[in-house]
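Hi team, as promised in this morning's meeting, here are the two structures we talked about. I've kept the exact order from the run log so nobody has to guess. The first one is mostly here for context; it's the second one we should focus on when we meet again. Sequence first, then the predicted structure tokens.
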Amino acid sequence: MARPPAAALLRGLLAWGAFGALIVVLSHAPSVAPVPAGTALLQVSIAHAGVRLAPCRRLSAEELAARAPNMRAPEICPRGRSPVRVTVELDGRTLVDETLAPSGLARDGTSTLYRRIPISAGERQLTVRVVDDLRVPARGYARRARFVLVPGQVLSIDFKPARGGIVFS
């Protein structure tokens, strides 16, 4: 097998060099800022299943006997769940007030919300409410906190029932 001429090697080297230079340039520009200059970002991320619309019911011995052997669960639970209402207020001004329908064909899944809201930096009073049973609006979760946000800061609002409900991070 013959060696390629020096000119072909030089052209290949120049092509690979140009390709590498393009990668370096594109990795540094254009710059992308996740938060507009001088502002902070409020990130609301909630995924929660509302309470069941009807309670589970214990089957009687006759009802269990009438079912196929593989279908003899002692309780029957309707699948439907309540929508979830999420309210976010910043310094007394409502930013988010949404009622989220449960997902799924049988409306038995989680209700989800994701919002990114740019806000001005500074001292802020934040109030978040999550109501997971719209039949009893007083039931639910609420949290109020005061924050000092600096430009470029991202404040996340999550919902974790195992950690008490509404979590700021």
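And here is the second protein, the one for discussion:
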Amino acid sequence: MGDMKTSLFNSADSELDRLLSQAKQDLLARQQEKQSTTVQGDSQKPAALAVPIRLNPGSNAHTSTLLKFDEQTGRAQLDTDNIYAQPTSTNVSAIDAQIESKKLCPDPTTKRKTPSQLAKEKESSLGKRWFGMKAPTMTTELKNNLRVLQLRNVLDPKRFYKKDAVAKRKLPKYFEMGTIIEGPTEFYSSRLTKKERRSNLVDELLADKQARTYFKRKVGEIHARNESGGKNWYKSNTRGKALKSKKNRK
């Protein structure tokens, strides 16, 4: 009986030793596998930068008046002496001038405009629909150019234009003057040479001999039509009749 018990204990011990040895082998295999995976992962990682990337905080401790840099420790600290120092008159004036120059704190009352200012701005241009077309300063040259454009139907007897209602009324307030650039097809028909070009429309019309002759004839016709039946017309006619009767008597 005793021999049987000892044999059972010996078999149990041997089984336990076998299980322990197998567990140790499994543990060693897992550790080796883990080490191999870490080595492979490290080999696949990109190489680290030789120079680390540093962000620019926007302030330098060596040049700042509010920070104090310690050369021994390499740390930056607040300089309480400069922070709580009493400002002098020169410093205050310099700071005020800097603020005014950079307009860090503009006057809030300047943003709000009075009704009269808004009305003046509204009258100065036609608005966004007309791309901010402004009212130019009316000069004698501009006025003459506008009158010539309004009376363009009497400038050339061979051209006919639609009647312009503005021609009999006041001049426009908002307008812009430009220069017509002739195309290549009008090189010989409608192009003005450098000799014929002038600074304004009136000078160009007066420089044209054919236009002057036409204007002189039309003005003479208008004067003759307006003076018909008047004092001058009566004098010229009576004088002509008197001369004729005198010749007939002779």
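Starting points for discussion:
The chain has a mean pLDDT of 74.
DSSP finds eight helices and two strands in the chain.
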